[in-house]
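User: Please run a holo structure prediction.
Assistant: Happy to. Please share the sequence and the ligand.
User: Here you go; the ligand is iron/sulfur cluster.
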Amino acid sequence: MEVTNEIIMKYLRVEGVVHAGIATPETLEGGPPSTDLSYVMPSAKSAIVFALPLNLDAIPDYLGKKDRLTYETNYIRVSSLGDGIAVKLANFLKVQGYPSVPLAVNEIYRDGPPEDKKYMYPDISLRYLAAASGVGFFGFSGNLLTNDYGPAIILGGLLTEAELEPTKPLDKSENYCDYYNCLQCCGTCPSKTLHGQDLVTVTMGGHEHQYGEKKYTLPCAFVCGGFSGLDRSGKWSTWATGRFPLPLTDEETVAVAPMNLERFNKRPPAPGGRYHTFSPNPIYYVCSNCQLICTPDKEERKRRNNLVKESGVIVQNEDGTLEAMTPEEARKRLDAMAPERRALYEGEVEPLPEEHKLTEEEDFTHKL
Ligand code: SF4
Ligand code: SF4
C-alpha cells in the first residue's frame, strides 16, 4: 500500500492530534544538530511530527495555585499518549513496508561526555521539526506555539523511510508572538532564564525562524526540578516548596544543586509526582509558567501572570500536602516549624559563588 500524507493525517486525527506536519532532511537542512534525523535512523526519509492538546481548563487553577494535580495528571497522560501514537503509527507504517522508528515525547537524551549530558540534549528536537513543518511557530520563550492552543500542547513524532511530501512552515504573519512587545513569559519566570534573551535566527530548509536564546539553561532545570521556587521578591512562588536562593547561571546551579537535592529528598512526599529517567524519587510539575501563561489572547496572558503573582507562596504541611498562602502567613508557618523541619525549606546556606545579578538591561520585569 502506498502511504500518503492524507493517510497519515487521517490516522493522526483519529488519535486526537490537532496539528501535524512532515519534515524531511531537505526541509531541515541548516538546522541545529538535534534536527539530524540520521542520529536516530540513518535511512530516514521523512519525520512525522504532531501536537496533542493539553487540558486548557486545568491551567488557570494550576497557575493560581489552587489545583496542581489535574494539570500534572493530564500532562503525564497526554505525554504517554504521544509516545503511544508514535509507536502505533511507526508499526502501521512498518507493516505497510516502510521501516519506521518512533520518537519519545521526552526523556531520551543524547549520549556524550558528562559535561554535555547535564544539558539533556534530546536525540531529535521535536520543536524544530514542528516549526519546520508548520505545526506551529517559535515564540520568544523558545516554546512551540500553535494558533489555537498556544504552547499548551505535547509534541510527538516518528521517523520513517516513507518518502512523504514535506509540509510548509507557517507564514510569519501567522505568528501571534510579538516578542519584545509582549515578554509576558518573562513575568513569572523565577529562574530569570528568559530575561536578557537576544533573538536568535535559525534557518531550516531556507526558512528563517526566530526565538529568544537562553544564556543559561540549568537555572530553569533547577526550578522545574522543584528544588526551590520562591521568587526573589519573596511575594510569590511556583508550586515548589524550597525557599533557597535561586541560581542565575549554569555554574551557580551546579554549585548549589547537591545541597538543594539533599533537602528536596528529605521533604515529605507531596500528592502526585512522577518518576523521571534521572530521578529515583518522584518529581513534581511545579513551574512551566512560561508555557502556560502564553496564549493567543494577549490580555489573557497578563491575567495569567497576575494569577501566579497574586496567589502567593506555597508551603508544605507536615503531611506533605501543599498550601498557597500570603507571604506573611508563610513566614509565620515557617517560623513555627521545628528547626530541623524548617531547614528542609530555608535557612543559612553558603552564598552563591560569584553571585551574578541581572543588569537593568537584562531584567525585563520593568517592561511588562
Ligand atoms: S508570552 Fe508573549 S513574548 Fe512570550 S512567547 Fe508568548 S507571545 Fe511570545
Ligand atoms: S519553566 Fe519556569 S523557570 Fe523555566 S523558563 Fe519557564 S518560567 Fe522560567
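The pocket of iron/sulfur cluster (ligand 2) is lined by residues 189-191, 193-194, 220, 223-224, 287-290 (CB under 6 Å).
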